[in-house]
Structures are given as C-alpha cells and as structure tokens.
Amino acid sequence: MNGIEVIVAHRERATLRVGDVFLKIDADQERAEAEVAAMAWAPVPTPEILWRKPPVLALAALPGKALGRLSEPSTASSAAWVAAGAAVRKLHGAPLPPWGGRSLDDVVRELDAECAWLVANGVVGADVVARNRRVAEAALRPWTPVFVHGDLQLSHVFVEGDEVTGVIDWSEAGQGDAMFDLAILTLNHEDRLADVIAGYGVDVDVDAIRGWWSVRSLQAVHWLIEHGFDPAPELAVLHSRK
Length: 242
Known about the structure:
Blueprint: E1 4-9, E2 13-18, E3 21-26, H1 29-41, E4 49-53, E5 56-60, E6 65-66, H2 78-92, H3 104-120, H4 126-136, E7 146-148, E8 157-160, E9 163-167, E10 174-176, H5 178-186, H6 193-200, H7 206-226, H8 232-240
Antiparallel strand pairs: 1-2, 2-3, 3-5, 4-5, 6-8, 7-10, 8-9
C-alpha cells in the first residue's frame, strides 16, 4: 500500500484508492443505492462489493487496466475494443432493470439549456453550437429502451490483454438508448468505433452515435468547468463536427 490515491473528487462525490480497495463517497444515497442495484442486475463483470457503510461504498479493484482515457490515444488492442463492444451488447440484451431513465424530452430540454449557456457565456462559438445541435438531431429520436450503463466512458471499462475484466461506475445505469452507451464509449476515439461495432454486432445506427457525441459534449462542458475539470476533449469533439 502506497498511501491514498484520489481518483476523482468534486462536490457531489469522491473516489479514493487504498491499495486494492476503492472507496466511493457519495452525498446522494439514492444514487449510491442505484449503483449497487445496477451492479447486481448487470450481466457483465463488475467490482466486488466489500462492504457498504453510507456514505461509503468499498469495492475491490478490478484486474487489468482501463481501456483508455478520454484525453489520450488508447493503447489497448483492437481485440480489446472488440471485446468491449461484445460486453456492451451483452448488457443491452439483458432484461430491463425495474427503474427507468432519462426520457427524450428530458434530454432535449437539458440540451437546449446547455446550448444557450455555452453561447451566452462565450465558451463555444454560436456557429459551433448550432452545427452540433443539428448533428444531435440524429440521436434525438424515439428509441427502444435497453439496459444501459449510462456513463460508459472508456476509463470505466477494464481489460486485461484482449479480455474485458469488468465495468465500473454504475450510478447512471437504467433504461435508455443503446446508441448512447456506444457513443460514450467511443467519445473522442472515433478511430475505435469500427472495432466496437464489430464486437457489438447488428443494429448499430452510426448517425445516432455521432449525434450522441454532440449531445454529450454540449451537455458536459458546463458541468466540467463548474467542477474544475478540463473540458478540452469535449471541446475538441464539438469543433470537429462537420
């Protein structure tokens, strides 16, 4: 054990690592309970729950390492990305959890509010926001709900060699659009989308995935700035849209 490592920390929650144990501290106990329920419901490997004493949830570390980081090129193999796509397909094929998720109306309402904030505060040019809002339309359509992770960043998928060893951070899990998970997994890593699709298989709407890239980036920048994080990867996505 080499001291305490702060994985992430902001006003809502924090995650610390002590040796092979992760301590998640969440001010919202309903969210913490949802995470525990989602891990129990998920048909893919998740961290072992060692103990829980609100507001702290102790989880065992997963073997391997994260598929990558949002701000860096991934060094994981093509086969590992294919395996990640297959794991997502398994998740989406599972029975729906008994709790819901964000509706299309919720997404549109939040998206329009964030677009207005970005322009009003001069964070992103009005032309860039407008262009991404148009791209986003491909995602803003009715979907058949599946069991989604809800925050499937590549740093939340752990691999060892070419195999997925587990998926972490399930607090946003629920019912939602399958293409949203695929979009979050490949955000700022468009070059890996073909591998993910190869593992996922059929029923992939690439236009919807591209739409969710814009939705996610437009929605995330405000929160990241407000909580002291660098929004550079999301801004790069916004500026790359055609």
